Amino acid sequence: MGGFFQDRMMVELHAQGRSADDIRDCLKSAPLDAHVLSAITTASALGCDLRVASDANAFFIETVLEHHGVLGCFSEISTNPARVDGNGRLRISPFHDPDDSSPHGCSLCPENMCKGKIIERIQATANGKRHFIYIGDGRGDYCPSLKLGEGDYVMPKENYPLWNLISSNKQLLKAEVHPWNNGEELEQTLLKLVNKLITPPAQPSQVEYKCDMSNPVSTEVGQALRVPH
């Protein structure tokens, strides 16, 4: 059976009698770490521009973030598009155009999404006036980590694919590496970096915070954040 793998999964669930509403209810029942929620709301309150870049899909991400009351904290969600068709079946499409022979030309990333391209697009609009904090754990987070420069930060989850790839040759990265193990460490590390960036010296600039990490329902949530410093 051809087609995008996430869409095939949704077709199979629908064949088993599971509707989009059933999937939504399941997503709402999944916990989200209180420290992660606190990190999101605090970073947003500090003026950071939070963005999501994720190889999950819009239905999953928006459902989870809205349920926990933090959807409005994010200025952008870059992920695989999703819709509910007339039969109540959830349909998911790839982020990059599947009709292109080489959708993004990146050998590090899956065909449907290159997060490095997303970071490059954001960087192109920043005119050098943003610093990035990138949080992630998956193999797909390695490419965007390589796009970060001096003055940026990457926060990989220890002993996950991103951490392992970075550890294999840290000299390939220009950004500072700050690992974490759990939600509490994520919150502490992130807010320490944000406070470092928003504390004088005195010229206003912007911080871009990008987070991509697996959640309890096997989606990835990514964020980008802008902070005056």
TrEMBL record:
<dbReference type="GO" id="GO:0016791">
    <property type="term" value="F:phosphatase activity"/>
</dbReference>
<dbReference type="InterPro" id="IPR036412">
    <property type="entry name" value="HAD-like_sf"/>
</dbReference>
<dbReference type="InterPro" id="IPR016965">
    <property type="entry name" value="Pase_PHOSPHO-typ"/>
</dbReference>
<keyword id="KW-0460">Magnesium</keyword>
<dbReference type="Pfam" id="PF06888">
    <property type="entry name" value="Put_Phosphatase"/>
</dbReference>
<feature type="binding site">
    <location>
        <position position="137"/>
    </location>
    <ligand>
        <name>Mg(2+)</name>
    </ligand>
</feature>
<keyword id="KW-0378">Hydrolase</keyword>
<protein>
    <recommendedName>
        <fullName>Phosphatase</fullName>
    </recommendedName>
</protein>
<dbReference type="InterPro" id="IPR023214">
    <property type="entry name" value="HAD_sf"/>
</dbReference>
<keyword id="KW-0479">Metal-binding</keyword>
<dbReference type="InterPro" id="IPR006384">
    <property type="entry name" value="HAD_hydro_PyrdxlP_Pase-like"/>
</dbReference>
<dbReference type="GO" id="GO:0046872">
    <property type="term" value="F:metal ion binding"/>
</dbReference>
